[in-house]
Write a structure and sequence with these properties.
- The protein has twelve helices and 16 strands.
- The strands form three sheets. Strands 3-2-1-4-5-6-15 form a seven-stranded parallel sheet, sandwiched between helices.
- The protein is of the alpha/beta class.
- It folds into two domains: 160 residues, NAD(P)-binding Rossmann-like Domain (Rossmann fold); 167 residues, 2-Layer Sandwich (Dihydrodipicolinate Reductase, domain 2).
- The radius of gyration is 19 Å and the shape is globular.
Length: 349
């Protein structure tokens, strides 16, 4: 199933509820919704923090709810078009929020990079979402969704792909407190694709060199798949898939003394630079796709907001649980993001 909209609009003025709105990524999502003129409500556990953020954005709709209280979540989603979950760890928050969304008749989206969370969400809620005509869309963010879109766009008319390689380079990684908490919570084995099946990455994880386009050049990388592997396994016929991350940002991520990200006011995001490269192999031909830009947290906002804006009204048409590249036309979606939010390159060698 693919949903396309040349000019995405919401049906009516029912809001998008941002759960975890006061967090680092949540605030970027709120900013992107406001920039696009899409109505939204703020939701989360801490009423005081929500009210302070509401004053900053000029939003009147504040909804206090906790994942420990399912009824409060359902009440917080009443009358909404969709909920965007920005509150990790998603291993703890995704299931309660999806359950509430299904009961409230609301589309669900999140920004998880946790493979186990995305996999569980897709497997557990697909039937319920289909029956109720709702969309469940995990990992619509930098990790997961972006590489899935690039790989889907590169695959194009290929019926199958022999090998997908995803390589991510970051010039730094200043983790948020949420990233650190998630890292401690997310202890599941990382999954890759081999012989067409999801299997654990061998340990110790393999390292190699990857030649990125400038400014990164040759980088030592380690196999470290995120939710893009789960997404690709859903809808592309892939024999083998590997994902890599350069070693520099991992050292910063694992250092408890690394400071949290700082937003450059002139950019509206941090100065962190990223590049995602995808190489797809089939019968000796290689197709390439790449995206580059600034701030992995900030760029997640336009990705997930674009997805939410493209969804139809609740219960309209077919529903189900999907990966980003499975649900939308990848080239069209990337075209909306580039060049304002990132630079996209597609080619062949």
């Amino acid at each position: 199933m693919r949903i396309q909209a040349a000019t995405p609009t919401l049906h009516g003025r029912t809001p998008i509820v941002v759960y975890g709105a006061t967090g680092h990524t949540g605030q970027f999502v709120c900013g992107e919704l406001q920039r696009r003129g899409l109505p939204f409500a703020l939701a989360g556990r801490n009423t005081e923090k929500l009210q302070l953020l509401a004053a900053q954005f000029g939003v009147l709709d504040v909804r206090t709810a906790s994942v420990d209280d399912g009824r409060s979540l359902v009440r917080a989603l009443e009358g909404a078009h969709a909920v965007i979950n920005c509150a990790g760890p998603f291993l703890d928050t995704a299931a309660p929020l999806v359950e509430a969304a299904m009961e409230a008749g609301v589309h669900y989206l999140d920004v998880t990079a946790e493979q186990a969370s995305a996999q569980a969400t897709l497997q557990t809620f697909s039937k319920t979402a289909e029956e109720r005509g709702l969309i469940v869309l995990p990992a619509a963010a930098f990790y997961g969704g972006l590489a899935d879109l690039l790989a889907t766009a590169a695959a194009g008319d290929w019926p199958s792909v022999d090998l997908v390689e995803v390589a991510i380079a970051l010039d730094s990684w200043h983790p948020t407190s949420g990233t650190r908490i998630t890292g401690k919570r997310n202890t599941a084995a990382r999954l890759m694709i081999a012989h067409g099946e999801l299997v654990p990455v061998v340990q110790p994880a393999p390292q190699r060199s990857w030649r990125f386009a400038g400014p990164f050049g040759d980088q030592a990388v380690v196999e470290l798949p995120f939710t893009e592997t789960i997404a690709l396994s859903r809808h592309l016929q892939v024999t083998e898939a590997h994902s890599y991350l350069n070693l520099l940002p991992l050292a910063e991520l694992r250092d408890p003394n690394t400071a949290a990200p700082v937003v450059d006011t002139s950019l509206g995001r941090s100065m962190q630079t990223f590049r995602v490269e995808v190489a797809e192999h089939r019968n000796g031909t290689i197709r390439l796709a790449a995206a580059s830009g600034h701030d992995i947290y900030a760029v997640s906002a336009p990705i997930i907001v674009e997805a939410a804006a493209r969804l139809q009204a609740p219960r309209a048409g077919r529903g189900g649980a999907f990966a980003l590249g499975e649900l939308f036309d990848a080239r069209s979606f990337l075209g909306v993001l580039s060049p304002e939010h990132l630079l996209v390159e597609l080619g062949e060698k």
